[in-house]
Design brief:
3 domains, about 25% strand
Length: about 450
């Protein structure tokens, strides 16, 4: 019974089968008026049945049929195009037509996946396709359904190939090397990064060089200047290293707002991953804190080679909650666990001054000992509403209200700066570049 059921479920009829059968039926119908066509129709029906049996035999009776293997990376990058290949081989002694359906993870919501190809006897092919995940976590791939059509193209055989596989979708790591490289570029022509003149002093002396306009005159070495006969010479110091940089992620409801298929938390996670890599490449210590209505992850700042893997493993499973985050917990955690003055980059979101006022006392206390940078997001939908003209009263109301909320975002920046807290208001799509640029500015000014 099970054998018959497997045979029944794997047998399909092609479009050519139905077309030929339809033509034969049409001849039978016409033979009522033209009797000589009846014998012709019978012979054609018999020939058709024989061809179907022959096509079935060549498809189902061969021991070796086809093989399909999914070639996927060990991990997927969220928000990026990830390339996957299906390696197929035709073990039939004749040419086949092949249609493949890969059972993709439900998070992708792809219902029309289909790859078609022709394979000669013994031919191997690699069939590429790409997926773009919009959520982090584990993605479960199912089996691969292969539909094989024989040389006569009357019968289709479905073959289910076991290919169950679970892949982890990590924050966007494909551009990590690009940002690490650009973090060391001093050419101001590079988009997204600008070189900031260094105005402070570090403790490690590097060299004496000639003075150029824009250098700090307090660093002039007068003894070396006297020996050169009038050419100003200046002391050059290296950057301070091994400073602590913590990225703090708010997992509360304010980070669940969507933007282009991803939440604000997803963009913050991407920026955190890149920011951590850039900090480590600058010989700083990178750490991670996550918090919501309860405690979250705490990874102490370190510059070991394994630190990026620790941060990556903590970020890939991060999810937002619908409750308000506990800033009192964050304040206590920072006070008790981080003893050295550090740069704290807080990724959160505020839509009004009232929402800021509830959390401002905790941030002010944190900023007394550490350099706090609060990163929150522009509402790009409001920017669209506020732009352009208002053709009617309703559109005018929408424009005025949108401008009011945009102004309130700018007032939040000024309120934070009033208490000595750095603030960065940016669009989600520009978050990573703006955060790295802000970090480079802080490093150049030696504020930590």
């Amino acid at each position: 019974m099970n054998l018959f059921k497997r045979f029944y479920l794997s047998l399909f009829l092609s479009r050519r089968f139905y077309r030929l059968l339809g033509c034969i039926i049409f001849l039978f119908v016409v033979s009522y008026g033209l009797p000589f066509l009846f014998d012709v129709s019978q012979y054609l029906l018999l020939l058709f049945c024989l061809l179907c049996v022959l096509d079935w035999m060549v498809l189902f009776l061969y021991a070796k049929t086809i093989s399909v293997q999914r070639m996927a990376p060990d991990r997927l990058s969220n928000g990026d195009d990830n390339h996957i290949q299906l390696a197929v081989k035709n073990d039939y002694p004749f040419r086949i037509s092949l249609q493949l359906i890969d059972e993709l993870p439900e998070q992708l919501q792809i219902r029309d996946f289909l790859i078609s190809t022709l394979l000669q006897p013994g031919e191997k092919k690699s069939l590429p396709y790409s997926i773009r995940p919009k959520q982090r976590g584990e993605y479960a791939f199912g089996d691969i359904q292969a539909y094989v059509t024989g040389p006569l193209r009357l019968i289709i055989r479905r073959k289910t190939l076991s290919a169950k596989q679970t892949l982890k979708v990590f924050p966007s790591f494909l551009h990590l090397r690009q940002f690490e490289f650009q973090a060391h570029i001093t050419d101001p022509g590079n988009i997204g990064f600008k070189q900031v003149r260094k105005t402070g002093h570090s403790l490690e002396f590097e060299q004496i060089r000639e003075y150029v306009p824009g250098d700090d005159i307090r660093s002039i070495n007068w003894k070396a200047t006297g020996r050169t006969g009038g050419q100003l010479m200046i002391n050059n110091y290296t950057d301070e290293k091994s400073q602590q940089v913590y990225c703090i992620l708010d997992k509360g409801r304010v980070m669940k707002m969507p933007f282009e298929g991803m939440t604000l938390l997803d963009y913050a996670v991407h920026a955190t991953l890149v920011m951590s890599g850039v900090a480590l490449s600058r010989q700083d210590k990178s750490g991670l804190i996550t918090f919501g209505e309860k405690g979250g992850d705490f990874i102490p700042a370190n510059h070991r080679a394994t630190q990026m893997n620790n941060i990556l493993n903590a970020l890939y499973k991060l999810e937002t909650r619908f409750l308000e985050s506990d800033y009192a917990f964050l304040h206590t955690l920072v006070k008790t666990r981080i003893s050295q003055r550090s740069l704290l980059i807080l990724f959160t979101n505020f839509e009004s001054l009232n929402s800021l006022s509830r959390q401002l006392p905790y941030m002010r206390n944190i900023s007394k000992k550490h350099l706090l940078l609060v990163v929150f997001f522009e509402n790009t939908s409001l920017e669209t509403l506020a732009s352009g003209t208002a053709p009617d009263i309703e559109r005018l109301y929408e424009k005025v209200i949108a401008e009011k909320f945009i102004l309130e975002k700018k007032l939040i920046v000024k309120e934070l700066q009033r208490y000595g807290i750095h603030a960065l208001l940016t669009a989600p799509g520009k978050l990573t570049v703006d955060v790295v640029n802000k970090y480079l500015q802080i490093k150049a000014r030696r504020e930590i």
